[in-house]
Design goal:
The structure holds three protein chains of three kinds.
Chain A: H1 2-7, H2 9-35, H3 47-58, H4 73-79, H5 114-122, H6 124-127, H7 146-160, H8 175-191, H9 196-203, H10 209-219
Chain B: H1 3-38, H2 48-51, H3 67-73
Chain C: H1 12-40, H2 54-86, H3 94-119, H4 133-155, H5 164-183, E1 186-188, H6 189-193, E2 201-203, H7 207-242, H8 249-263, H9 278-290, H10 292-305, H11 311-315, H12 317-340, H13 342-348, H14 353-382, H15 389-422, H16 434-439, H17 442-471
Antiparallel strand pairs in C: 1-2
């Protein structure tokens, strides 16, 4: 039998494939069914938050920041309650990160405010001397992409039954409704900011990336 | 299916695989060394496939013509 | 197709991919050195607006070295080694030549698309799988083309038995195909919602599931991109360059199956202390430890191949590259399982020890093996001597110094930061603010960046040497059987 495998590349390949695929099936598949359930209070992101999350992803903040608080005292002291699987049920993709060059951000919404973020994103070292985080001034100029954010929310609602528009859950509705809601939500953040350009743009109906990003960061609790 | 059942299937699937592969693996070791000792097959000569790999070098083991058909079906 | 003695091996495609290996190696490592300096001197992050920030460049670095430098190295060596151990020339099949060319050009286009899109911030954020769906499709196409090349060449081979390297190339092909497909399952949003960016997509998996699939992929991508094909290379190039048959061919077959079996179970170790069930975590740790055995099976096999021939290490710099590569392979396959032990992982995870570990594997093992392989191929592909032996020697020592600087500084940095994060004062309060633990790393980050720079300079020396070899070195008449000729 072994001789035969050694000279039959096709069956050899099938053998290799079976061995490696089987491992994947047994290790991963069963846990799939279990760990996908959301916690009671976990809600899907609003359109504005998704837009902010996309900014976070576009700039790979996850290259430096984790969003996973491990169950050690040193971590819960520093960042807050440790993370639970169900809290991530609406995270597509997950953003746990792999290297904590900067601090964990999973509960940053509990201890940082809009104006803190505004100053920090513009010039981190001015707020935290010694910081090595890049400056993100360009986010004050680029506009947030609500259309793509809405498309994402709409897709997960349709394809994965994410409970938008259900009782007690965020409303999505049509694009126009979602846009209006995002605009209202952004208003509260803009009110807490100082930057005049961002405020002016908002008056003209234009939401800047920084506003969406802060909406997302404030929602991380 | 409830989670209990899936878990136990997973456990058993895992055990079965470990068993199967361990047996297969050791059988293979036995096979390799036995065929070498009995002289049915000299595995070590295959090392020469790297050393004498010019197109004009002699083949270690010629591919039999009757194998051709089967091989062509492979992908 | 009938054989005729006038036919020679056809290295057209191998040469194309050799150029790609060198160019993408330079690009990827240059970006790597830049971002290493950015951590030490953060002002460097702000020089090119959004395109120059650490976050944008980091995926470019990892993808350019993994899917640029390493993948083209794999393809280049396949199109070289494949023909030789199967004893059949690409020139014997017009079809395979065509597929090879197509494979190369689609690959180049895909790489260009990757570079542009990552700089623009178009990413799915999943590490080593950052590409959005249009690029994923291109990757599937070029992977299938490579498969056609492999199995096509095998189909017309003269040698009946497949040499061990071919086993490893096949495993690379299959493993990456499976992993890549499953991890990149995504739904393009434009087609569902009819608005927004056309290339945007959303992952099929959510939260912990997404993490599980990602690290199942992430870990095994390391197996099938940075380990399996590199073993394929060393099983060919070390024996060939040194003229020594593999110490034990049987052991090489056994370690192959051992590796296939065990590697795939170990993915769980990236998720220690996360929200994944305990069960998977423990299994991940245990199998990571068992994994040392088959990995070392290959490495020891390689080192023993040189038994009684250690003199070559003095005379032949290429053998030096290969032997040091296997040594680094042993080092990092020992280090990896150590990091997978739960209590060690608690300290090491999220720190610089992890990139340190990655780099003694990638620079020492993958980098040296590919560099050494291309040095061996060059005189045969271009029919000229290697341009300068002195330069090869100098490169070897410079790069070795660079690697040592890299991983020692990262070990210290990682362990220091891990300890500081958990340190408490006498009342049980955290002793350091986060920024304290960042500032303390400055000297190590500087040292690391300089180490990386040394390696990069070595890559430039390599590129120059190969370029000179191809264009102006002394021609050779007969192909050397073993040791590569060099001036």
């Amino acid at each position: 039998m072994f001789h035969w495998l050694e000279k039959n590349p096709f069956f050899f390949a099938v053998g290799v494939f079976l061995v490696i695929a089987y491992a994947g099936i047994v290790t991963i598949l069963p846990d799939f069914m279990e760990s996908a359930r959301p916690l009671k209070g976990t809600k899907p992101y609003t359109t504005l938050q998704i837009a902010g999350r996309q900014v976070y992803i576009n700039n790979s903040c996850n290259a430096c920041h984790s969003q996973l608080i491990r169950p050690f005292k040193s971590e819960t002291d520093r960042y807050g309650k440790y993370s639970l699987s169900g809290e991530y049920a609406y995270d597509r993709p997950f953003l746990w990160g792999s290297r904590r060059t900067g601090p964990d951000l999973h509960r940053v919404g509990n201890y940082r405010t809009t104006d803190w973020h505004e100053n920090h994103m513009l010039d981190p070292a001015a707020v935290v001397p010694g910081s090595i985080m890049p400056k993100y001034g360009f986010m004050f100029k680029k506009s947030a992409d609500l259309e793509t954010a809405y498309a994402e929310a709409y897709t997960v609602k349709k394809v994965f039954n994410v409970p938008y528009d259900k009782p007690g859950m965020p409303k999505l509705g049509s694009y126009d409704e979602a846009k209006k809601a995002a605009y209202k939500e952004a208003g509260k953040i803009v009110a807490g900011m100082k930057n005049q350009d961002v405020k002016d743009a908002y008056k003209n109906g234009d939401i800047k990336e920084i506003v969406a990003l802060i909406a997302y960061l404030n929602g991380l609790k | 299916m409830d989670m209990e059942l899936i878990r136990s299937l997973q456990g058993w699937g895992y055990v079965a695989m470990i068993f199967g592969l361990t047996i297969g693996f050791y059988a293979y070791i036995y096979h390799l060394y036995k065929s070498q000792r009995d002289g049915t097959k000299d595995y070590e000569k295959y090392s020469n496939m790297a050393l004498n790999d010019d197109l004009s070098d002699s083949l270690v083991e010629e591919k039999y013509p009757q194998d051709n058909k089967k091989d062509n079906e492979e992908r | 197709m009938q054989s005729s003695n006038a036919i020679n091996y056809d290295y057209t495609i191998a040469k194309c991919f050799t150029v790609a290996t060198i160019v993408l190696g330079i690009v990827g490592m240059l970006v790597g050195v830049i971002i290493a300096f950015q951590l030490a001197f953060p002002e460097l992050s702000n020089l090119a607006g959004e395109y120059g920030t650490f976050g944008r460049l980091r995926p470019l670095h990892t993808d350019a070295v993994a899917f640029g430098f390493t993948a083209s190295g794999i393809f280049a060596t396949w199109y070289y080694v494949g023909q030789r151990v199967l004893k059949v020339s690409m020139a014997e099949s017009k079809f395979l030549m065509f597929i090879g060319r197509l494979h190369f050009w689609i690959y180049i286009l895909t790489v260009a698309a990757v570079v542009v899109s990552l700089l623009m911030g178009i990413t799915t954020s999943k590490e080593y799988a950052e590409f959005e769906w249009p690029i994923d499709i291109a990757i599937v196409v070029l992977w299938v083309l490579w498969g056609v090349s492999i199995f096509g060449l095998i189909g017309i081979r003269r040698e009946r038995v497949l040499y061990i390297s071919v086993w490893y190339y096949i495993a690379t092909f299959l493993g990456v195909a499976m992993l890549y497909l499953f991890n990149n399952m995504e739904v393009p949003t434009y087609f569902i919602a009819g608005m927004g960016k056309w290339y945007h997509s959303v992952s099929m998996y959510a939260g912990s599931n997404d993490a599980m699939v990602q690290w199942w992929y992430g870990h095994n991508a390391v197996a099938f991109v940075f380990t399996v094909p590199i073993i394929a290379m060393i099983y060919y190039f070390l024996p060939k360059e040194s003229g020594q048959p593999i110490f034990s061919y049987k052991l090489s077959l056994l370690s192959f199956w051992g590796l296939m079996f065990v590697y795939l179970w170990a993915g769980g170790h990236h998720l220690l202390y996360s929200t994944v069930p305990d069960w998977v975590q423990t299994m991940g740790s245990i199998f990571s430890i068992i994994l040392i055995l088959p990995s070392w099976g290959s490495a020891i096999n390689m080192l023993l191949t040189m038994k009684g021939e250690w003199g070559q290490l003095k005379e032949n710099p290429l053998v030096k590259f290969y032997v040091l590569a296997s040594t680094f392979y042993m080092l990092s396959t020992l280090e990896g399982p150590i990091q997978a032990i739960k209590s060690v992982n608690a300290l090491a995870h999220f720190t610089d020890w992890i990139p340190g570990h990655v780099h003694d594997g990638t620079l020492g093992w993958v980098g040296f093996m590919i560099i050494g392989a291309i040095f061996h191929m060059a005189p045969r592909m271009f029919r000229r001597e290697i341009y300068s032996k002195k330069l090869v020697e100098a490169q070897f020592w410079l790069q070795t110094t660079g690697i040592v600087m890299y991983f020692t500084s990262m070990w210290i940095a990682g362990i220091t930061q891990g300890m500081m994060w958990r340190a408490t004062d006498q009342y049980g309060n955290l002793a350091y603010s986060f920024i304290d633990t960042v500032e303390v790393l400055h000297p190590y980050w500087t040292l690391r960046a300089v180490g990386g720079l040394f390696f990069l300079i070595g890559v430039f020396m390599w590129a120059y040497n190969i370029y000179k070899t191809a264009t102006s070195s002394r021609a050779i008449e007969k192909e050397p059987q073993y040791a590569s000729p060099m001036a």
